[in-house]
Amino acid sequence: MSNATYQIVATSTCDKTDWSQSFVAAVTMKSFINYSSSSDFPIENLPYGIFSTKDEPEKKIGVAIGDEILNLRAIANHFNGPLLQSKQDVFRREFLNDFMSLGRPAWLEARSKLQELLSANNHTLQDPEVRSKVFVAQKDAVMHLPAKIGDYSDFYSSLQHATNVGIMFRGKENPVLPNWKYLPVGYHGRASSIVVSGTPIKRPYGQTLPVEGAAPVFGPSKLMDFELEVAFFVGPPTNLGDTVPASKAYDHIFGMVLMNDWSARDIQKWEYIPLGPFGAKNLGTSISPWVVTMEALEPFKLPNVTQDPKPFPYLQHDESCNFDIKLEVDLKPPSGVATTICRSNFKYMYWTPRQQLAHHTITGCNINPGDLMGSGTISGNTADSYGCMLELCWKGTQTIPLKDGTTRKFLQDGDEVIIRGCCVGDGYKVGFGSCTGKLLPANTQ
What we know:
Elements: E1 5-8, E2 23-26, E3 48-53, E4 60-65, E5 68-71, H1 97-100, H2 104-118, H3 128-134, E6 135-137, E7 141-144, E8 152-155, H4 159-170, E9 186-188, E10 194-196, E11 201-202, E12 205-208, E13 217-220, E14 224-225, E15 228-234, E16 253-261, E17 263-264, H5 265-271, E18 285-287, E19 292-293, H6 294-297, E20 301-302, E21 322-323, E22 326-332, E23 339-345, H7 353-361, E24 372-374, H8 389-392, E25 400-401, E26 407-408, E27 416-424, E28 429-440
Parallel strand pairs: 8-24, 10-18, 11-28
Antiparallel strand pairs: 1-2, 3-4, 3-7, 4-5, 5-6, 8-9, 12-13, 14-17, 15-16, 15-24, 16-18, 16-19, 20-21, 22-23, 22-27, 25-26, 27-28
């Protein structure tokens, strides 16, 4: 509960009712909003999102608390601290960009005010008449993209993922290319096809090369895949020509979302040389609707992965920017019986978000509030922690058994991919909600 001592004994990771460790703990922060001990959205979290309702279709900024959403437009006047008093209009926007642009001191002030207003001993919002005007049940809300995403870049920062893919296509002798441990490899993606969780994705058409040495063919992709990723939103902007070293990059990172970068592997294999993925990736990228702030993730920092060789100075940072975010992927076929096919963790990342942003700007490339930067596929060291079908089925040479008795090598039409993520604290859980999407058949030509 949000205001009681309780005991949890469980074995899973981000299941709605089970946690990955056993403990007896008392909640130190108490809210007047009641939520279960397994809630993704306790008062320690308070992620931001954009929502609307059937009765009020205009988009609004909200904060998730338990099973409810606090409408920040309705309480904008309560942000009366020294940094936000003259900036209250940022909470009346249809996107988070303006709030993201204010920077960490303003974000901290907003978080402190929200925790104060939602605490059990603060009665400002507890009157039933007031509550009915400022809270909305999540089940009654429609979620939207949290920001206007002007630019989107995707990295390739999991060493295990890069190694696995290298072994598949180049062999064990030289799986990781020479540049990989010197810089965060990435590419610029397509922002226009980023969609909020729950949006279906159509199987794309494209050119593929089914038979080596033969001519390519045109048709629907036959090797559809998901990619388990975590992405971060950029906060304050920079000017063209400016650079942000990794040591100062944290102040430009607003928060994180779950991400599925849908991939057509057969299209990708034919098109990616020499410039990288194009149509194989621009068909759709799904993100979760709630942006979990870096402040909420702070208690879950882990030491950065040891990097050898030592990165160039602009990529060096002493402060941790690695996080114990437990990740799961379910595959739900048309039968409706879901199977967890992957359990991974953000802690496996080799290159950190700080380093990704630093490398992005080292050329003088300017960044803007609401820009999105993906981690790349997150894979661990065991076969059940690989973050995509390409690895889980090892390029189609193995099958994944599903609970309904069917098997998969790649995604089939009607399959739904469900990504969940959470951090398990001492008596609470900071969750991301879920990032879902169903694969639909290709259009008829």
